[in-house]
Amino acid sequence: MSRAFLTVCLLIAPFRVMAESPDTLATDLKQTCAERELVPGATATCVESKDTLYGARLAETYAALKESLPPEQRTRLIEGQSAWLSYVKPTCALVEWSTRPESPSWALVNRATCNLAHTLRRLEELDRLKDITDGR
Asked: Is the distance from CB of 114 to CB of 95 less than 8 angstroms?
């Protein structure tokens, strides 16, 4: 593949529609970062940048969904988002810790990939809810 083609793919990858599962997309993005960066620290930074991009999209989707819901459902969404945020950080820290003995240099990549996978899953959930509420 040409370098220009790969560059274009890397630029648009964070914005593609999730035709594949969130876990598959997270793994593919991690692999792309690993192939491009070649070292664990830079790979982790690359995966974190993908998580930041999808996290921004998640925040936009969350805000739009929140505005579209009646007050009682809005409260449920806020509670659910708060619980999700409380769950992800320690869970992915545990993933990092659990993989450190086997592969210390890649443990940060594993944490970043865990965060990205959770972000993508939550984005898919909220996109689905938004589609349902938009139809009402």
From this structure: yes
Mean local confidence (pLDDT), 88-103:
93
Q: What residue type is 83 in one-letter code?
A: A
> Which pairs from 53-58 meet CB under 8 Å and 24+ separation?
53/14, 53/15, 54/14, 54/116, 54/119, 54/120, 54/123, 55/119, 57/15, 57/123, 58/119, 58/122, 58/123, 58/126
- Contact in structure between 107 and 12 (CB atoms under 8 Å): no
The reported pLDDT for the residue numbered 103 is 86
Distance CA 92, CA 134 (A): 32
**The model's pTM:** 0.83
Ranking 15-19, 43-47, 61-65 by mean pLDDT, the lowest is 15-19
> In order of start, what are the domains of the chain with their CATH numbers?
22-134 (1.20.1270)
Check if the beta carbon of residue 49 is closer than 8 Å to that of residue 115: no
